[in-house]
Amino acid sequence: MTILATVRIDGPPTAKGRPRFTRLGRAYTPGKTREAEGYIRHQIVEQAGMLRLEGALRVTVACFMAVPGSWSKVKQAQALTGAVQHIGRPDLDNLAKAVLDAANGYLWCDDSQIVALVLSKSYAERPGVRLTVEAA
User: Fold this and answer.
1) C-beta of residue 100 within 8 angstroms of C-beta of residue 111
2) What parts of the chain have a pLDDT lower than 50?
3) Which of 15, 20, 77, 134 has its CB 3.0 to 4.6 Å from that of 94, i.e. a possible disulfide?
């Protein structure tokens, strides 16, 4: 498969927040989610431009979470080698949703083009997200 774009988003991955509702029943996206998606879009445009890819796509979203500083040095080392997995919050699907929604209209025309999606969440010294787009 041909890699069409790779983007590295530095900083702790942010999960997509649930929509909030006003008393009038209108839905809106929480501020933290809007800010995170804006930052992701900025990184996409800066690193890959506005590609607006067409056709079937295979997308890989790898989320790298910070190792808690309160852990012992031994447990931190185990986390960095993969012996200890990140099984807590935020949920992987919500992390991916924030990235995919932010890339919609920038990396691809519409996220309905994604026919294969590979997600992962692990610990790393440098928190962030790596987004890879390939032709399917």
Assistant:
1) yes
2) none
3) 15
In which element (H, E) is residue 135 found?
strand 128-135
The whole-model pTM stands at: 0.92
Q: Which residue has the tokens 């692990």?
A: 122
What pLDDT does 58 receive?
Answer: 98
Nearest to 124 by CA among 17, 8, 35: 8
CA distances from 1 to 55, 59, 63 (A): 13, 11, 22
* Token pair in block for residue 30: 């929480």
Tell me the Cα Rg of the chain: 16
> CATH code for 3-16+29-135?
3.30.1330.70
The tokens 């041909």 sit on which residue? Answer: 2
